[in-house]
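Re: folding output
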Amino acid sequence: MDFAELQDVIERTYGDRDRERGVSATVAWLAEEIGELAQAVRKGTPEQQLHEFGDVVAWVATLANQQGVDLNEAIQRFADGCPKCDAIPCAC
């Protein structure tokens, strides 16, 4: 699944609820999920880490949908390596 497919699934599954919740609440949920990911990375099992990575990516897709951002387009700035120096590995 690429980001466009994920954003479509998220929109079809949660779009109405996401719009009702609003951007501010979505940012709060994303922040909470990032905290859960941090804890899973520090003390969790590989299964817990996988779960939390999935949650974070899903909430990023939700926020991108609310803001009208195409995540495939957003990540293109990294397609050639570092977006500042265009090097792989980064030479900054």
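--- second protein (sequence, then structure) ---
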Amino acid sequence: MDNRRYLTIKERLKQLNGVFPMDDAVIEALPEGSKFVSIEHSHTSAYTITGRIMALNQNGEEQAYFLKVAYEEHGMTMLRGEYESSKMIHGFMNDVLPKPCAFGTYPFEDKVPSPPTCFYLCEFVDMDVTTAPDPAEFTKRLAHLHKVSKSPTGQFGFTVPTCDGQVAHTVDWQDSWAEFYRRLLLHICELDVKTNGAWPEMERATKQIADVVIPRLLGILQKDGRLLKPCIIHGDLWEGNMGINLKTGASILFDVGSYFAHNEMELGHWRCEFTTVFRDKIYIEHYLKNFPAAEPAEEFDDRNRLYSLKGAINYAAGHPGSMLRKTAYNNMCYLCEKYAPIDGIDKYDPTMDPVITGATITPHLADGYI
């Protein structure tokens, strides 16, 4: 087991003393004919160091690029996943996120005691990240992305591991969506136990969800002649990972960690406490006008509750002590009571359900490890 303690981004920034960790590898990755001019720090990030590059294109015109730098193998997994996700999405719909340019690594020299370092480079887009998107416009564009996407294998999964925050997804290709989601959820639940400790009742509920509820709620989507299209999803979609393009006025996504999934999986995050804007039912209502609920449609809300487990437990795994762990457990109890009653777990408590209470949290930049 690797017990090394990796530096946080705050600690790295302190070590750098204001100097951006730039390398010639980034300059070489700029589009052909570009001339590097400058680099400056950009917005704050929990898991990466970000910057804005100014360059001159081959016509001598200024062009801005956005740069992310990350460290160690997990940082490489995160940025490689974002690059491959962005490339895939851009190929389906070229105006829904900043155009990806490159993923690469800094050369490692034995004489320099620096950790393995990688970068992700894309176009820089001026955007408003404080204004809520128009529900009709945003959901129409999101549904269009889901509709036009096409899995390269016809299966659920992705070409490389991707991440939600610092947590890697399990994305091995699967024909069965129920099996894919089962593996994805169980992996995150294992990480949660490592972070937050054992909780026998939740672990019992988790097993019942995996063994009985998922096959019942999701297995039915591909039974009796029903077809379920694998759609590319953002993978961590809440209002903190999207903005409004100031040049075009259109909604735009960023920080993607994609995989091919049931399209409704995208909406699971909108049920979690870290989401406030998309918690408004108008967003799901408009989305379903563009991409109707799968059959059986009457089970949409239960599927949404099931899909929210991934977002809530993923957040808890990255933020020790988070209340979202209790929310996820309470939702598990609801689903078990309805579809697979079992002894040894608690009763569902509506006073702990954020959909009923309206409870929210303020997502924070973790001091966790990148």
